[in-house]
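Try this one yourself first.
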């Protein structure tokens, strides 16, 4: 019996995934290499510094720790230029209606995101007050695929992990949900989100029946 839904932010509530991609691509190009959308899949859900490590590996670049911090800061600066310009029109289709349906059915809703920019994004799209708990990259010590972010979410809502469903667009996030003992609904392509219990293309016209797993 499902009592709570935990939502990933980037790629599920709002399409910030495209802005992460643009900012990382710009950094890669500046460092002298190409960065494809396929490469970008590996960065989804992963923390900022781990994303940078993957990017540098793709470009075959070795830099010292201090430079790494500077590069990550640079990317984040570009990324923040995009997200501070966002508004409610960038909330993904179906999100608002689905959350309303959940609340009408007594299901609790929370955010579980690796992003340290979570509050900025939720403020931009005016959704801060929609969630009963918000666990973001500032509150965790281990990013997805570690289950910490979702376990803290369940704890904050006072709901057992096995009564939680996670909505995720990233393989790292689906893995985190499963490792936390939760159900995972992939939002995106079934080819990518193989470990999820179910996969939907987006939250448009999703009914409450999606929470039945029997
Ligand atoms: P930031 P999510 C994740 O958010 C993104 O998917 C991932 O691409 C990003 O690197 C990570 O947040 C950290 O973001 O640089 O803003 O702290 O999908 O878990 O909501
Ligand atoms: Mg995501």
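Now uncover the answer:
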């Amino acid at each position: 019996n499902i009592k709570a839904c935990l939502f990933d932010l980037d790629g599920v509530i709002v399409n910030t995934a495209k802005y992460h991609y643009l900012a990382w691509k710009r950094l890669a190009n500046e460092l002298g290499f190409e960065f494809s959308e396929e490469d970008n899949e590996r960065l989804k859900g992963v923390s900022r510094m781990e994303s940078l490590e993957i990017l540098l590996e793709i470009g075959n670049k070795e830099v010292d720790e201090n430079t790494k911090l500077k590069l990550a800061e640079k990317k984040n600066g570009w990324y923040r230029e995009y997200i501070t310009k966002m508004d409610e029109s960038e909330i993904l289709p179906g999100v608002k209606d689905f959350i309303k349906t959940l609340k009408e059915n007594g299901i609790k809703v929370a955010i579980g995101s690796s992003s340290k920019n979570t509050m900025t994004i939720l403020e931009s799209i005016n959704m801060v007050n929609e969630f009963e708990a918000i666990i973001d990259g500032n509150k965790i010590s281990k990013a997805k695929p570690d289950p910490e972010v979702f376990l803290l979410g369940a704890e904050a809502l006072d709901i057992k992990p096995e009564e939680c469903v996670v909505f995720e667009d990233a393989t790292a996030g689906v893995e985190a949900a499963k490792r936390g003992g939760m159900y995972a609904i992939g939002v995106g392509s079934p080819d990518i989100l193989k470990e999820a219990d179910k996969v939907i293309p987006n939250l448009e016209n999703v009914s409450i029946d999606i929470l039945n797993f029997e």
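Discussion: Residues 8-11, 20, 43-48, 51, 76, 113-117, 137, 170 surround 1,6-di-O-phosphono-beta-D-glucopyranose (ligand 1) (CB under 6 Å). The longest helix spans residues 65-83.
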